[in-house]
Prior knowledge:
It is globular and about 35 Å long. The chain has three helices and seven strands. It is α+β, with helices and mostly antiparallel strands.
Amino acid sequence: MHEGYIHVNSIVFPSLFAISEREQQKGLMDVKWPPPIMSFVYESPRINKFWMSNTPSPLDILFCYNGKVTQICKGEPYSTSVIGKDQFSDLVIEFPEGIVSSLNIKLGHKASIISPNSHDLKKILASARNF
């Protein structure tokens, strides 16, 4: 799991990055409250859907595409309900529940990765294909 920073609505957050398929499947399963912020990075845009099986913490989930927040969803602990619409995303960010509303994050706000930088991220994505 890589560590870095994301930027959402002019606020910088530390984040864990789920990049390999294994990391993305595990996500925040079995992580007790309060969970860290986790960002799921995709090499190319795709339709992403999430569920909360084995995830004990409630989450705010941002689906982002082309540098903007396109969906804001709630993740209920241990739920197997599918989360996410049939819309492309290239970045999905999971926050502990309540952060999105307390910081007034809205649809259309900017969302991006600050670190690792794009050069390092390409190397990380290339190595993740080997898992």
